């Protein structure tokens, strides 16, 4: 098996500038300078234009990628396992991953944000190239962690705006917001009904009216998304995940995961090999 570089930084004007199969091996970061790029993400059409930032996880459902004749962007490619093995904060990682899987394009409203992103690109790439450093592996891993923290800080305004919208929205939107921030530890409908000062029966009515999905099923959907991300993180053992999700025993956690995913935690991880 041929080793691929952990980090690639390139200026891109056409598809031929990108490595073959980059979507399979790399987490893709794109800072667009001019022109536009069209693509489909999970079957939905998107257009990236000047001052937009695009992020795709490796193996994302991206098709129909097209660059305009005047397209120019700086692209940072980070090998998927290298990035995921250096995630510095698990709770933020889950929020970022779920947000990015639903919103692949972020518009950078401030010039300084775009400048910071490009500086972060260069710092990580420069550290990757400095292979004579006495503590190369250690410092490269630290730089990857710093890169992620800086990027999350830049994007926090976008996350917070979305959360404020949900938090002050309709009863249904407030329920979804509460589930998104509490479902790792709270999985009962009554908890959310009390938060919203309504009965569980009325909360189910509100959910069915807005989405035809019960409150319980919404909670399970949110938990399932996070469970999958946690189980795919090889740096966490199953007991640590059980503790993070506030289960009283490993056996109870195993039964819950089996009910949600159709597999025990160990069975699910074995399928990833």
Labels describing this entry:
single chain; 273 residues; alpha+beta; Jelly Rolls
Task: Please give a structural write-up.
By secondary structure, this protein is an alpha+beta fold. It has 2 domains: 7-158, Jelly Rolls; 169-272, Arc Repressor Mutant, subunit A (Orthogonal Bundle). It is built from 12 helices and 8 strands. The longest helix has 32 residues, at 136-167. The protein is globular and about 55 Å long.
Number of β-strand runs = 8
Percent helix range = 40-55%
Q: What is the CATH class designation of the largest domain?
A: Mainly Beta
* Widest sheet: strand ordering: 1-7-2-5-8
CATH architecture of the largest domain: Sandwich
What amount of the residues lies in strands? 15-25%
Oligomeric form: single chain
Keywords: DNA-binding, Transcription, Transcription regulation
Protein name: Helix-turn-helix domain-containing protein
Domain HTH araC/xylS-type: 173-271
Organism: Mesoflavibacter profundi
Write the layout of secondary structure elements.
Layout: E1 7-12, H1 22-25, E2 26-34, E3 36-41, E4 44-49, E5 52-56, E6 62-67, E7 72-79, H2 80-84, H3 90-102, E8 105-107, H4 111-129, H5 136-167, H6 171-182, H7 189-195, H8 200-211, H9 215-232, H10 238-244, H11 250-261, H12 265-272
Antiparallel strand pairs: 1-7, 2-5, 2-7, 3-4, 3-6, 5-8
């Amino acid at each position: 098996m041929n080793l691929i570089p952990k980090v690639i930084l390139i200026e891109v004007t056409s598809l031929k500038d990108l490595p073959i199969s980059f979507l399979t091996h790399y987490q893709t970061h794109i800072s667009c300078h001019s022109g536009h790029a069209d693509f489909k993400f999970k079957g939905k059409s998107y257009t990236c234009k000047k001052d937009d930032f695009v992020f795709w996880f490796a193996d994302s459902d991206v098709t129909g990628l097209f660059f305009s004749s005047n397209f120019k962007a700086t692209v940072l490619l980070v090998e998927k396992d290298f990035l995921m093995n250096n995630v510095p904060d698990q709770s933020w990682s889950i929020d970022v991953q779920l947000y990015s899987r639903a919103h692949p394009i972020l518009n950078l409203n401030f010039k300084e944000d775009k400048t910071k992103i490009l500086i972060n690109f260069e710092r990580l790439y420069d550290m990757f190239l400095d292979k004579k450093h006495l503590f190369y592996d250690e410092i490269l891993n630290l730089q990857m962690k710093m890169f992620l923290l800086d990027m999350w800080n830049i994007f926090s305004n976008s996350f917070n705006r979305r959360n404020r919208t949900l938090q002050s929205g309709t009863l249904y939107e407030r329920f979804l917001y509460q589930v998104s921030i509490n479902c790792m530890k709270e999985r009962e409908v009554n908890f959310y009904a009390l938060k919203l000062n309504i009965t569980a029966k009325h909360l189910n009515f509100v959910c069915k009216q807005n989405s035809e999905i019960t409150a319980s099923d919404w909670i399970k959907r949110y938990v399932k998304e996070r469970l999958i991300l946690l189980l795919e993180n090889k740096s966490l053992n199953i007991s640590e995940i059980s503790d993070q999700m506030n289960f009283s025993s490993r056996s109870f956690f195993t039964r819950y995961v089996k009910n949600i995913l159709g597999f025990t935690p160990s069975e699910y991880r074995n399928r990833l090999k």
